[in-house]
Amino acid sequence: MARWFCQVNNHEELLEAAAFAKERSLHIFVLGLGTNLILGKHIDGLVIRNNIRGKTFSDSEVKAASGENWEELVGFCNYKGVPGLENLALIPGSVGAAPIQNIGAYGVELSDRLKTVETLNLITNEVVTFSNADCEFSYRDSRFKKEKEWFVTGVTISPRNELVFEYPDVKAYLEENELKESSKAIYRAVCAARVRKLPDFRRFPNVGSFFKNPIVTTEEYQRLKDRFPEMPKHIDPRGIKLSAAWLIDSLGLKGESVGGISISRQHALVLVNHSAATFDDLQKISKFIRKRVYSAYNVLLEVEPEVCPPQLSL
Ligand code: EPU
C-alpha cells in the first residue's frame, strides 16, 4: 500500500525519517493508530508510523507524547483521579491525532482542556510549541489539518474540576445509577453510552462518525423546524448544529448497504465494513447518503474522517 514505511520511537528517529524523505523528495504521511483514517489507494511516499511514547502527571498538567493511546491516557487519568478528560473517554486513536481533529464528545472538545501542542516542523526541523489559541481550533478542525508540515510530538493538558454532565445520555446514567456528579461517575457514564451506542471498531470495522454534524444558520434551521418539528438541534457558537445521525435515520437508511459496507443499525452515523469492502463501495454509499439527505433536507453532509491520499474524495 505504501512505497516507503517506517516507525519512529523518538525525536532523533523522526528527524532521520524526515531527512530520508527530503533527500528523495517524498511526500510524508503520518500514521497514528489509523482509527479515523480511510485509505484510498497506494501511497506514493513515506508513511511514518508514530510510536513516540511517554506521559507524566502532576496536579497542574498532564503531558503525553503523541504516540500514546488516547483511550489509555484518559483511563489512566481517571484511575489517578486527574479530572477534565472524562467526557472524552473511549475515543479510539492516538494522542497525536486528538488535537489535529479536535476530538469531542458529550459536551466537551479537546480544545476546552488543552494547554499546548508540541510539534516538529518536517520541512525546517524547527521545534514549535503552539498555545491553545494558536491551534485555530473549531468543530473537528484545527490548523494542523491543513498545515501538514507540523508533526505533533506531544500535548499538554490542564486538569479541570469543572464537570459537564448535561448531555442526555450522561444525565440519564447518573440518575439511573444514583451517582452524584463527579469526574469518575461521568467517566463511567460516557463509557457506558459509547459501548451501548457505537459499534466496537475491533469487531465491526468503522471509523466512528462518518459525517460531521452540519452547522446551519438560524434562518435555515427555522425553515427546517417548520417542516420537521421533531428535528433535534444543538446550539453552537457558529450557528445551529443539526444531528447528521438523525437526518440519515429519519430517511430509514439504517441497514442499507453497498458492497461490503452498511449503515450501522446501532447508529446511523457509523458505516461498518463487513467484508473487505473497497474504496469504491465507500464512495458509492457516501454519495448515496449525501444525495438522499440533500434532496430531503437541502443540507450537505461533510465527511469527517481523514482520507489518504488527501486528493481522493468521498
Ligand atoms: N440519532 C438518531 N439515530 C441514530 C443515532 C442518533 O436519530 O442512529 C439522533 C438522536 O436524536 C440523538 C442524536 O442523533 O440524540 C445525537 O446522537 P449521539 O448522541 O450519538 O451523537 P452524534 O451527534 O451522532 C457526536 C459525535 C460523536 C460523539 C457523540 C457524543 C460528531 C460527528 N460525532 O455524535 O463522535 O461520540 O456526539 O457526544 O460530532 C466521532 O467523532 O467519531 C464520534 C463518535
Description:
Helix content is 29%, strand content 24%. It has 314 residues and is of the alpha+beta class. It folds into 4 domains: 2-50, 2-Layer Sandwich (Uridine Diphospho-n-acetylenolpyruvylglucosamine Reductase, domain 2); 55-157, 2-Layer Sandwich (Uridine Diphospho-n-acetylenolpyruvylglucosamine Reductase, domain 3), CATH 3.30.465.10; 168-197, no CATH class; 215-308, Uridine Diphospho-n-acetylenolpyruvylglucosamine Reductase, domain 1. A 5-stranded antiparallel beta sheet has the order 5-6-11-9-10. A 3-stranded parallel beta sheet has the order 1-4-2, with helices on one face. It has a 3-stranded antiparallel beta sheet with strand order 12-14-13. Helix 5 packs across helix 6 (183-197). The model has no long low-confidence stretch (mean pLDDT 95). Bound molecules: uridine-diphosphate-2(N-acetylglucosaminyl) butyric acid (EPU). Uridine-diphosphate-2(N-acetylglucosaminyl) butyric acid is lined by residues 105-106, 197-198, 208-209, 212-213, 232, 243, 245-246, 249, 267-269, 304.
Order of strands across the main sheet: 5-6-11-9-10
Taking pLDDT < 50 over at least 5 consecutive residues as the criterion, the unreliable ranges are none
Bound molecules: uridine-diphosphate-2(N-acetylglucosaminyl) butyric acid
Strand content: 15-25%
Please state the second-level CATH architecture of the largest domain. Answer: 2-Layer Sandwich
What is the strand tally?
Answer: 18
At the first level of CATH, the class of the largest domain is Alpha Beta
What is the CA-CA span between the terminal residues? Answer: 19 Å
Which oligomeric form is depicted?
single chain
Domain count: 4
* Backbone structural class: alpha+beta
